Structure formats: structure tokens, C-alpha cells
Amino acid sequence: MGKIVNISEAVSIALHGMVIIAQSSEQQVNVNVIAERAGSSKFHVAKVMQKLAKDGFLGSHRGPSGGFFLIKSPLEIKLIDIYEAIEGKLIVSQCPINRPICPFDTCIFGNVTTKMVKQFKEFIEKKTLADYIGAKYRKGNKRILNSIMIHDNRL
Fold it and tell me: Domain 9-150's class?
């Protein structure tokens, strides 16, 4: 079955991995845990998480008891930033196949793909990791609570 929207495995790992880390009550989350929960290869997870660490989203400790941890508040990390760290700038273009010249007078897709990309981009620009830390994760997770309370006086 074909897909209309295609999100790369690396982006999926990055987004899911960051949420898993943000939700964790542990000080750091091991690659094996992320790989198991995300349903991905631990080697691919390690590569993606290392990229996010290099780009300043995560800190890490090496070794068998090592893992990854957020170095910013979940409120400060937008999904668009994670996406663009992996894929590069998300650009809304007029042509879904990036052709400079269309062979037709009007797009055969009727600009629906442009609208979809625009709506997706607007959605991930508004969402932060904090949006995915439900009450069950906040309860009893002092690391997350302290991080959020510093940046948001509403809690």
C-alpha cells in the first residue's frame, strides 16, 4: 500500500525517541529502551540520538549504564526543531515533486499536497515535547516537573 505522507525512519526515531526521553522518570534513557519502545534498530537509534546530542538537544553518557537525557526543558524543544535537525529545513513548495516547470497549466494535485505540508509544518511548529508529557508522566517525575515549572509558572 502506498503512502501519501512519507516521514523518514530517522525522523520517526528522533521524534519518538525524544518523547520517550522526556517522559522518562530516569535520569537518562538507554538506547536499548528507546529502540524497543520505538520499534527500531538500536544501531539506527544510536546514530539518530547522537545526531540530536551533537545538535544540542540531548546530553549523553557512554558505557553499559549510559544513556541520553534532555539538556533543555521539554517546553523549549519544538517538534519542528527535531524534524529539521534530521531532515533539514522543511520547505513548503508549490510542486510536490519539486519540478521547476509544470508540464500542465494547473497542478494535477490541485495544490492539496502543498496544503498538507503547510498544515503539517504549522502543527509541528506549535508542538513541544511538553505537549506529550501527560499527567501520568508528570506525576512523580520531579525532574520533568522542576524543568517545566522553571519555564512555566502556570503549573
Answer: mainly alpha
- Please give the model's pTM, rounded to 2 decimal places: 0.82
Residue 3: per-residue pLDDT: 61
Amino acid making up residue 154: R
pLDDT digits (tens, 9 = 90+) for 116-131: 989 999 999 999 999 9
pLDDT band at residue 154, thresholds of 50, 70 and 90? very low
| Residue-range domain boundaries for the chain | 9-150
Q: Report whether 90 contacts 121 (CB < 8 A).
A: yes
Q: What is the DSSP string of the chain?
A: ---SS---HHHHHHHHHHHHHHH-SSSSB-HHHHHHHHTS-HHHHHHHHHHHHHTTSEEEE-STT-EEEESS-GGG-BHHHHHHHHH------S-TT--SS-SSSS-TTTTHHHHHHHHHHHHHHH-BGGGG--HHHHTT-HHHHHHHHHH-TT-
